[in-house]
Amino acid sequence: MKVKLISVFLLLTHLCHAQNAKNINPYGYKISYVRYFNGKTVENQDPVIVFTNAKETLISSQNIQTKNSSYPFEKTRIDRADNSYIQLAYLKANNTVAMVDNNSILKQNLELVNETKVILGYVCKKAKTVINSNGIELWYTNQLGVKGAPSILGQNLGLVLETVRNGNSIITATKIEKLKKQESNFVSNDFNSSPKTDLLTYRDLLWKSRFTTINVFKDELVRFSDEAKSNDSILRFSKGLILVRKIKFPEIKKDQKVFIDIQQNSNGDAYDRTGTAFVIPMDKSISFLDGLQKGAKELPKYTNGNGSEYQGVVATDTYSPLLELMRFFYSLWYQTI
Asked: How far is CA 257 from CA 56, 140, 217, 251, 289, in A?
């Protein structure tokens, strides 16, 4: 009787594994993730999209897949054979760069925890780690027969369906879709054709691609001289101590920032030790440029309590004062600000 019970148990176990194997989709899966913070959905997010099968995994996003992502943007391809990955950056149209990492995934230090929970109908196990003082929990399942995650972390565990950072920042799977045969080749040839570089250079190129650089002045001499003359592109005032150039900025969106970089080289004049970089607003009928070209009398006056008059320093209905971007001091030697 004991032998029969063991036989029945082994038979049921075999049937259970066989049934799970039949449910695994050979072409892979598409997993959609959503971010939450302090229990609320993160607004204006670009949801992470993961494509994965037994051969490879692709980390992308909804905007990238629908071709609505602005430059620069990144995609990641993980080779399931050796857990190496390629990070691919699209810097501009027809301008890409990539880096290869063969070790990071294999070196991840993850502690497996004896806890489970169900996400989207799949039993998930728990792993945890600490990175830069951030406690991170990963919930992954092995029931789909594939590996993957919404980031590089946890790629070798199984299919990560939820990541929790510090208990309040969560990215969790909201949908798992089976891929069809024609959808199984989800990795573009850009991963192979793009030039490869090291990690440091890759990050530098990616960072610089986020900026639009506008050169205003280059190798211009700022000095007091009767020889200082304006030309077609640069106006000089106060005998060469003030340089003005009219430029057109691209649209500056709400969340964008503007930086100014000044490089200077003093010729040793002890009095040339201060300077300022400023913008002349042209949004009203009178501008500071009128004062430079026609004289200070063109600018509105401000009178203080003791009767002293100052021109061009306060805003009026018809005039906007200067917008100072940087005031700098320099020594007699070469300096970069």
From this structure: 38, 39, 20, 11, 25
Query: Which is more confidently placed, 66 or 258?
Result: 66
CA distances from 160 to 72, 74, 145, 210 (A): 26, 20, 12, 30
Token representation of residue 220:
């211009």
Residue 30, amino acid: K
CA 34, 46, 79, 170: dihedral to nearest 10 degrees?
Answer: -30
The terminus-to-terminus CA distance of the chain in angstroms comes to: 88
Give the per-residue SS3 of the chain.
CHHHHHHHHHHHHHHHHHHHHHHCCCCCEEEEEEEEECCEECCCCCCEEEEECCCEEEEEEHHHHCCCCCCCEEEEEEECCCCEEEEEEEEECCEEEEEEECCCCCCCCCEEEEEEEEECCEEEEEEEEEECCEEEEEEEECCCCCCECCCCCCCCCCEEEEEEECCCEEEEEEEEEECCHHHCCCCCCHHHHCCEECHHHHHHHHHHCCCCCCCCCCCCCCCCCCCCCCCCCCEEEHHHCEEECCCCCCCCCCCCCCCCCCEECCCCCCCCCEEEEEECCCCCCECHHHHHHHCHHHCCEEECCCCCEEECCCCECCECCCEEEEEEECCCCCEEC
Long-range contacts of the stretch 160-164 (C-beta < 8 A, 24+) = 161/31, 161/119, 161/120, 161/122, 161/124, 162/119, 162/124, 162/137, 162/138, 163/136, 163/137, 163/138, 163/139, 164/136, 164/137, 164/138, 164/139
Residue 306 pLDDT: 84
pTM for the full model?
Answer: 0.73
Say yes or no to pLDDT of 140 above 60. yes
